[in-house]
Amino acid sequence: xxxxxxxxxxAALLKEQGYSVVGAMMRFWPDDKRVDTFDSCCSPDAxxxxxxxxxxxxxxxxxxxxxxxFQQHIVGPxxxxxAAGRTPNPCVNCNTxxxxxELVKKAKLLGCDYVATGHYVKRVDGPSGTEFHRGDxxxxxxxxxxxGTPVSALPYILFPVGTLEKPQVRELAEQxxxxxxxxxxxxNICFVPGTVKxxxxxxxxxxxxxxxxxxxxxxxxxxxxxxxxxxGQKKGLGLYHTHAVRHVVHLDPGSKTVWxxxxxxxxxxxxxxxxxxxxxxxxxxPDVVEVQVRxxxxxxxxxxxxxxxxxxxxxxxxxxxxxxxGQSAVLYSGSRLLGGGLIEDHVRTLPALPAPKxxxxxLR
Length: 364
Description:
The protein contains seven helices and 16 strands. The chain has a six-stranded antiparallel barrel with strand order 11-14-13-12-15-16. Strands 8-7-10-9 form a four-stranded mixed beta sheet, with no helix packed on it. A two-stranded parallel sheet has the order 1-2. It folds into three domains: about 5-175, 3-Layer(aba) Sandwich (Rossmann fold), CATH 3.40.50.620; about 205-260, SH3 type barrels; about 265-345, Beta Barrel (Elongation Factor Tu (Ef-tu), domain 3). By secondary structure, it is of the alpha+beta class. InterPro entries: MnmA-like, MnmA-like_C, MnmA-like_central, MnmA-like_central_sf, Rossmann-like_a/b/a_fold. It catalyses: S-sulfanyl-L-cysteinyl-[protein] + uridine(34) in tRNA + AH2 + ATP = 2-thiouridine(34) in tRNA + L-cysteinyl-[protein] + A + AMP + diphosphate + H(+).
């Protein structure tokens, strides 16, 4: 229970269906937490509201300490990825490493049969076992974040609101008199106060470098750290020639270089993914899949060029703009979630960097 309306309604529905329900919230915030450190879904206030909802529903409530695991699996890797010039998705890691791995194990130890969440995902008992499918509300579908769920955990997870749309969930919360019925949704990364840029600036040292043209290697600007840029970005680049329209094409923290080019330089014809996880036997992954390369992106058809237990390679039917290394490539067949992996960078030949001289020696 997160203290939000979706998990609140999930608890109420399961209680109505005759389950013996135990409410639980995973504590992520540290003892020395700043007031603005954690968003409303992962804060002491949210824990208080979740406990009150549990009282309304008539179920016991427990606050479970996962501070160490959260720092190890979520916050640490988040900063490490930005420092490496990649764009991480901490919500995927949280579901993969914490909620649907360690929490499921904890539930089993406590004698629980299932872990239920408020995700907008449908569980389907297919001919070969448990399957995850897109939720019925296309605006809220959250399967993108669940591709890393361990296969062994699939039978032990329930999604009570997966067949509902958000307005229906709020209506049910009103009918049950739940205090979270009109609570606003959390939109931010839960542990990031303010903007990601400010959070990254606070934790990763600045390392000034140059912005260069991907085709020629020419210096066209300066920057204070590759961690402040994302692939496809065209605003706020600080180029010498401000009228030039350029997009970030590649980030290289090793040489402290931000590479830019035109729109065509940002088009990917395919991708390679590592750290793969499949929710079905590898042999059953079809030769043509739909792949979603970022949350809210429209899935596109792709041909599977290679697949093994560690990763896969795809060729898009249509080139895709600014596919970001570190984000997830999530595989589908229709509504069914097949699995996914972490996007790796392009294999590209970069212009040779000339020996520093003149303006380059002045940069600090």
